[in-house]
Amino acid sequence: MDIASVIGLVVGTLMILGSIVVGGKSFGALGGFVDYPSIVLVGGGTVCTMLICYPMSEIIKVMGVTKNVFLTKQKDILIIINQLVSLSESARRNGLLALEERIEEIDEDFLVLGVRMAVDGMSPEIVDAIMRTEMDAVEGRHALGKSFYDALAKYAPAFGMIGTLIGLILMLANMNPETIGAGMAVALLTTLYGATAANFLFLPIADKLAYYSGRELLSMEIMVRGVIAIQAGENPRVIKQKLMTFIPPKLRPEEEEQA
Amino acid sequence: MDIASVIGLVVGTLMILGSIVVGGKSFGALGGFVDYPSIVLVGGGTVCTMLICYPMSEIIKVMGVTKNVFLTKQKDILIIINQLVSLSESARRNGLLALEERIEEIDEDFLVLGVRMAVDGMSPEIVDAIMRTEMDAVEGRHALGKSFYDALAKYAPAFGMIGTLIGLILMLANMNPETIGAGMAVALLTTLYGATAANFLFLPIADKLAYYSGRELLSMEIMVRGVIAIQAGENPRVIKQKLMTFIPPKLRPEEEEQA
Amino acid sequence: MDIASVIGLVVGTLMILGSIVVGGKSFGALGGFVDYPSIVLVGGGTVCTMLICYPMSEIIKVMGVTKNVFLTKQKDILIIINQLVSLSESARRNGLLALEERIEEIDEDFLVLGVRMAVDGMSPEIVDAIMRTEMDAVEGRHALGKSFYDALAKYAPAFGMIGTLIGLILMLANMNPETIGAGMAVALLTTLYGATAANFLFLPIADKLAYYSGRELLSMEIMVRGVIAIQAGENPRVIKQKLMTFIPPKLRPEEEEQA
Amino acid sequence: MDIASVIGLVVGTLMILGSIVVGGKSFGALGGFVDYPSIVLVGGGTVCTMLICYPMSEIIKVMGVTKNVFLTKQKDILIIINQLVSLSESARRNGLLALEERIEEIDEDFLVLGVRMAVDGMSPEIVDAIMRTEMDAVEGRHALGKSFYDALAKYAPAFGMIGTLIGLILMLANMNPETIGAGMAVALLTTLYGATAANFLFLPIADKLAYYSGRELLSMEIMVRGVIAIQAGENPRVIKQKLMTFIPPKLRPEEEEQA
Amino acid sequence: MDIASVIGLVVGTLMILGSIVVGGKSFGALGGFVDYPSIVLVGGGTVCTMLICYPMSEIIKVMGVTKNVFLTKQKDILIIINQLVSLSESARRNGLLALEERIEEIDEDFLVLGVRMAVDGMSPEIVDAIMRTEMDAVEGRHALGKSFYDALAKYAPAFGMIGTLIGLILMLANMNPETIGAGMAVALLTTLYGATAANFLFLPIADKLAYYSGRELLSMEIMVRGVIAIQAGENPRVIKQKLMTFIPPKLRPEEEEQA
Questions:
Q1: Computed from CA positions of residues E184, E189, E195, E196, in that sequence, does the dihedral angle turn out positive or negative?
Q2: Chain A residue numbers touching B33 (CB-CB < 8 A)
Q3: What is the Cα Rg of chain E in Å?
Q4: Residue D133 to residue E245, Cβ atoms within 8 A
């Protein structure tokens, strides 16, 4: 579980609430920031707009992906490289078919797919083509997820602004020196809701999905190159050197330097 | 029919109207949000600007496409893949010419085009070239439709702002403490119209067109690859594996895993 | 002549003026929207900035192109395709040289260029290269024209804002409860001028130039492919099928389906 | 010297100053637009930010390039093409070595480089590679210059806003009905400075650098293609036709049509 | 150490503080610009949002890279080119293996990697592939660093706006003619903090990282081309000419012109 994301979300929320309490000089000030019609307008309006943008099935699918933002464990690329190097040593010593019995120990579905195709004797071109199509498909699905949160981050502030405009128009049409302040305060609430939802929730989630997508595709790229190199019977040492270039120099294990 | 889009549109409209009624504490408040000159300025100004941007024929064409946003049934990519695999089995067993009698059962015009060219004995290069030109043309038409709604979403708020500026200037030139509130309320209406039209109608439609375009092109890409693979006489099992990569792993049928 | 653009421009202008008359409840209200110093600042400032951005010769050239937005007749791609197919039939029957006497009947300079080079016996590579260089050059000139109007649409509102800031500063420095309204009204005029010029004139013209550029390049692409196919002696029926893919299915002539 | 740019700068400045004099109804109004602390904040803040963005050496280099915006004489592409065609005729008649004695008459350093390499008998691949690397390098330097002015145009209004925020906060903290107007006027000055500097100076310069870069690279592209064609011993007439495609049809010399 | 960046940061900060002191007419005015809850909200909120966007490990890594903005010494590309030319002369005279003893004198790790692979007799394709993979990886890491500061520059002003909205709503809900000015002053502080942090700190750092990345990749490109040319046994004079094209003509050493 990605504890930092959860901490960021919880502490950030407390800071926003805390700044209201400190600024309003009482816990009661929080009450002035809850206005149900405003919540319904911004939340409901954004959801309804999303229903126009995406088919229902897609929305449900993306919802399921969102928990990854907080739950996904980052893959250790070093472990993947070491496994590929180890597989290449087996293949060099005992032939490609010897990899069959090692498929069990591979965690990554994508690597299992590649190794199995290599064992099955498919041509390197087809293995490469199938693995890269899978990568394109994964990239497309990630891009869809990101575009979904980008859309939320676009429509939530828009409905915040629509709500504020409605509030201002109502207030101006019945201008009353005594209630004008309270009226404008309520009108601004929807802008605050929209801005907070977009900048503290939707945009960060979109950013994190983009980050994860980059990491995932990098690890898939390494697996593709590794499997193709194994199939071509390349020297395990050369394979290791090639794949290690994907890791920042400082993180490369020391023995690599000495080798 | 895409029921979600219609629900989104209807419920969202009710929410906006509802928030006016609740905020204004009476149904009469809705009256303050209808100002015919403002509607004419924003609506008419936007339409006139579109007439400058696009030739008439193009505008009529795009209008016809818009209903797809609410009516198009999403294609099931799995069915297309199964059909392609089934076609490849026929072709392998009985030769390419045997596909002629199966053309009847194909729903997709684009696939009919590809299979017919294959049956006609055109070279794979030409089949690929013609199918991809068709894809480029479809992509171009979709992009034009999206650009049309993007333009609407750009000019509607612009005319909203122009209307508000006109209203403010009129109000300021004849400043009167008693009517200043009502004047500003009316001035802000055009901004509200423009913002709502752009964010609740035009941008979501542009987003959905982009989404449908992506799906359509994906299914066309699958058909092109399928037809080319059939023409090349590839193994139906390999074809299936290649094409299945376009589907998210969770949605792939179970038997595929066992095969 | 593109009547829709002219109608859009005229009706849109009337709507803006009409909304001022209706909002101000008298034709006299129009007078409050004319302020010569403001017009000079926004118009002159924008022109001066363009003089810094582009050399004089370029500005004059683009001015000449602008009338196309309202005057250009859209090319009928179907006619071009039919002409290419007809030319290919002549070439197939009587040889490439037979095209020489048909050059007279071709309207498009670009197609004349291609056919003449084919008749002159230039190699297909050179014909393709020269035609595509011409296309690149046309694309570059169109892009320059669009960038010119995009620049106008960027600087006009900027000078509108500069004018409003100047007006606000003047008004605030000599604040007088009686003239503050009129002062702000005048200050806002430059913003209105800039926003209207950008959104009702410059951006739509830029959009239309982009649209025409796309159409023009599409018809040029068809001509290049047609000439190359003719030179290669391809079957007229295949040429027709290839080129027809550039036209939306619904607009394709019926006989094509029956052929 | 590019007289239009200078005229644009001078006349534009006079217009801005004039609109202040006319709006303020006296030359004394200009005094209200000069506030030294505001000038120091916007000017100094922007310069300091640039020092963080770019190393000192780069800043000095770009300063030196800026005078080109006002001083560069536009290259006449037609002259370059004619020179290339003339060179190709010499080379065809007397061999590539004969170009050595004509190097003297070439003004363009880049063309001298190409012709000298051709005379030296370098292979066409190397000549092409070296000339294109030089082009890439020129493009990169131009892009750096443009990015520099884009950065100025980004940070100047930002410091204008920072200055206005500081002014507003100071004014609001010590609100005094009598000085509030003057306080806000001064606060807005920094926004005016930033907006004017960005829109009337930095953005136009960036636009002009981009324009010059495009022209320069176009003329270099023509030179590369010309030199390669000369080296390949192509027909001068074909070379002329190829290179003329880079010039708009209307500007092509008449004799070309007759040839 | 990049003294200009440090000067820019220090002088810029003094200018901002100075403009407050001058504008407020006393050093005490600075006190009005320090509000701890506002600092906590903008600073803390931005940090918490970054925790949602990036995993902890990545944040720590980027922090470490930031000092480079102020400390990195710019590489002298001329020295790298001279070293490559000198290496190519050794290789030409005494063979590739002779480079082994010169590896000691090379400072750049990336060049050491390339030369060592060349000495080890790896094929040019593999040397090129490994060096370019390393370049891609470096580019990716730089892009990640830049995206990090771009995210900071996006979220800091967003939290500034959220803070100002909260302040405004609190102030409006309890409107009091005597404290309204002070309330709005405090509300605007968060916007000032966000704008200053973004425009004076995060964006310039992002810009400088992008600048350094460009320089670094340029020097790596030169090294790759140099090593490949050395491996191919190219003439040192040709190598020099090729690599010198990466340097602006004015900075090229004189002797090059005379050679």
A1: positive
A2: 166, 169
A3: 26
A4: yes
Identify which of A7, A69, A195 has the shortest CB distance to residue E165.
A195
Q: Give the H/E segment covering residue E242.
A: helix E236-244
Instruction: Please name the residue of chain A whose CA is at the shortest distance from the CA of residue E183.
Output: A23
Residues of D in contact with E24 (CB under 8 A): 170
- Residue E187 CA: distances (Å) to CA of A179, E167, E190, E201, E252: 21, 4, 6, 22, 55
Task: Give the C-alpha separation, E147 to E205, whole Å.
Answer: 11
Q: Residues with Cβ < 8 Å from A112, sequence gap 6 or more? A: A103, A106
Q: What is the ipTM of this complex?
A: 0.87
What residue of B is the nearest CA neighbor of C189? B169
| 8 A C-beta contact, residue A145 and residue A208 | no
Tokens of A147: 């575009």
| Contact yes or no, E with A (3+ CB pairs under 8 Å) | yes
**In this predicted structure, which of A227-236, B186-195, D99-108, E239-248 has the lowest mean pLDDT?**
E239-248
Q: How far apart are CA D2 and CA E92, in angstroms?
A: 51
Indicate the residue type of C10.
Answer: V
CB count, 10 Å around CB of E257? Answer: 8
Find out whether E113 and E105 touch, Cβ atoms under 8 Å.
Answer: no
Q: Do B166 and C12 touch (CB under 8 A)?
A: no
* Closest C-alpha to B108, from B221, B241, B256, B237: B221
d(CA E80, CA E222): 8
Specify whether the CB–CB gap between E50 and E152 falls below 8 A: yes
DSSP string, chain D: --HHHHHHHHHHHHHHHHHHHHHHTSGGGGGGG--HHHHIIIIIHHHHHHHHHS-HHHHHHHHHHHHHHHHPPPP-HHHHHHHHHHHHHHHHHH-GGGGGGGGGG---HHHHHHHHHHHTT--HHHHHHHHHHHHHHHHHHHHHHHHHHHHHHHHHHHHHHHHHHHHHHHHHHT--TTTHHHHHHHHHHHHHHHHHHIIIIIHHHHHHHHHHHHHHHHHHHHHHHHHHHHHTT--HHHHHHHHHTTS-GGGS-HHHHH-
Q: DSSP state, B113?
A: H
| Minimum mean pLDDT range among A200-214, B84-98, B111-125, E170-184 | E170-184
Q: Choose, out of A38, A40, A50, A52, the residue to mutate when testing the contact with B (most B CBs < 10 Å).
A: A52
Of residues B120, B198, B201, B128, the one with CA closest to residue B159: B198
Chains near E, with 3+ CB pairs < 8 A? A, D
Using left for φ > 0, alpha for ψ between -120 and 50, and beta otherwise, residue B233 falls in: left
Q: How far is D121 from chain E (nearest CA, A)?
A: 12
Q: Looking at the predicted structure, is the pLDDT value of residue C75 above 80?
A: no
Q: Do chains D and C touch (3 or more CB pairs under 8 A)?
A: yes
- Nearest 10 degrees: CA dihedral of D150, D154, D160, D164? 170
Mark yes or no for CB contact E242/D166 under 8 Å: no
User: pLDDT band at residue A259, thresholds of 50, 70 and 90?
Assistant: very low
Nearest-by-CA chain E residue for A245: E134
Percent of chain D, pLDDT > 90?
46
Query: Please, what is the Cα angle at C17 between C15 and C23, to 5 degrees?
Result: 95
Neighbours of chain B (3+ CB pairs under 8 A): A, C
Rounded to whole angstroms, the Cα distance separating E78 from E81 reads 5
CA distance E131 to E113: 8
Condensed to tens digits (0 to 9), the pLDDT of residues C128-182 reads: 988 998 898 888 888 888 999 999 999 999 999 999 999 999 998 887 777 788 8
Provide the residue type at A26 as one letter.
S
> pLDDT tens digits, residue range A197-245?
999 999 999 999 888 888 889 899 999 999 999 998 888 988 898 888 8
Using CA atoms, how far apart are residues B115 and E160, in angstroms rounded to an integer? 60
